[in-house]
Amino acid sequence: MDLPVMPPVKPMLAKPVKRIPPGMQYEAKWDGFRAIVHRDGPELVIGSRTGKPLTRYFPELVEALTARLPERCVVDGEIVVEHDGRLDFDRLAERIHPAASRIRLLAETTPARFIAFDLLALGDASLLDAPLSERRAALEPALAGVDAPVHLAPATRDPELAARWFEQYEGAGLDGVIAKPLDLAYGPDARLMYKIKHERTADVVVAGYRFHKSGPVVGSLLLGLHDEQGALQHVGVCAAFTAARRAELVEELEPLRTDPSDGHPWAAWTDEAAHESARLPGAPSRWSGKKDLSWVALRPERVCEVGYDHMEGDRFRHTAQFKRWRPDRTPESCGYEQLREPVSYDLAEIFA
Question: Which intervals hold domain ATP-dependent DNA ligase family profile (predicted)?
């Protein structure tokens, strides 16, 4: 491979802001794997956000990208998987598997798509130093007429349309909106763009915590919600406390410490089979590796309010943000029914 921009390249990133800023290019924020594709004739590499290759995990995209991208190019985009008209990150994550036979099966049953939204090189020319407006102007004809499973990401300079996308696209499982300055050169691994994500709050039960890597202080609180049968399901964690607050929380929660085997709703967390029928903390996965998943059990008697962006199935997609304690709420009142579901939106319209 001999390209003006060689792999690995870490993608340009975005920093969060509360509102859609004016005077920029706006795109949907896709919920998938960020990927930079290098193609030089028959050679093709799909690089991840960390720079490590994803090529072996998406054989169907290797074939599709080789057939649809320009002969020599470097394209920034996102790999997504669709299910029932929505993006499905869980099914996408299943593709990172050590067995080639499993990957081939998933490539047939849950094929991935590639959404292209930036052009880093074309032919012998590097576009890293070109402004975004020029890169987009080069990307559109380069991908003119491209068809599924490769797509050109919709883009607009109209903030009102971006605001409608922000509301509508969530129903298709998208994450929000990205705003990009028109004069922006491509900065690998730098947070130079802006992301506007959905924010909501929920009242959840605190049923445990994990220690912080720095020592015997709270690293994250383990959160639960009651399902329709009244069972407390683990839905995620909240973190990002100051060092002083981590130490305070250990003392504050000490009266609630209990042995998991003493009637705790997540007592079966060490039983791998139990994870198949309930959401429990400490579920083994290829993502956690050898990470210590042990936790301190608390009697599920305290409720807190957390901020979150959106759900992935029956859990928080990302780490939630602690807002405040809710002594006025009972744990039994904290159920899934409080989580507002966005109005459904046809993902096919976005791909079109």
Answer: 114-227
Would the pLDDT of 10 be above 80? Answer: yes
Report the alpha-carbon distance of residue 95 to residue 165 in Å, rounded: 28
At residue 58, what are phi and psi to the nearest 5 degrees?
Answer: -135, 65
CATH fold, domain 13-197, is D-amino Acid Aminotransferase; Chain A, domain 1 (3.30.470)
Q: How far apart are CA 227 and CA 341, in angstroms?
A: 15
The answer to pTM > 0.90 is no
What are the tens digits of pLDDT across the range 220-237? 999 999 999 999 999 999
Q: Are 173 and 351 in contact (CB under 8 A)?
A: no
Out of 29, 180, 197, 291, which one is annotated catalytic?
29
Cβ neighbours, 10 Å, residue 283: 16
Show the tokens assigned to 129. 């130093």
Per the CB < 8 A criterion, the answer to whether 249 and 217 are in contact is: yes
Tell me whether residue 323 is one of the annotated catalytic residues: no
